[in-house]
Amino acid sequence: MKTKIRELLKQPYSRILIPDPETGRCAAKIQEFPGCFSEGKTPQQAYNNLEQAAYNWLASAIKQGMEILHPSEKR
Which DSSP string do the residues of the chain spell out, in sequence order? Predict the structure, then answer.
């Protein structure tokens, strides 16, 4: 399963960074993975945290038999 997840994460999924000018922090999400969200003190930290969140999201989705959307597909 680890190999499958790594291969999926190489695909061009929509990773979105959302800076918060008030706090200086940054949020991040993958549009095709509902509920897959993270944050960090910097954009790079938010992105790195998002990659771990996406890995965990995919592992859970695969175990539950959920449909994994292709990049840029919306529900």
Answer: -HHHHHHHHTS---EEEEE-TTT--EEEEETTSTT-EEEESSHHHHHHHHHHHHHHHHHHHHHHT---PPTT---
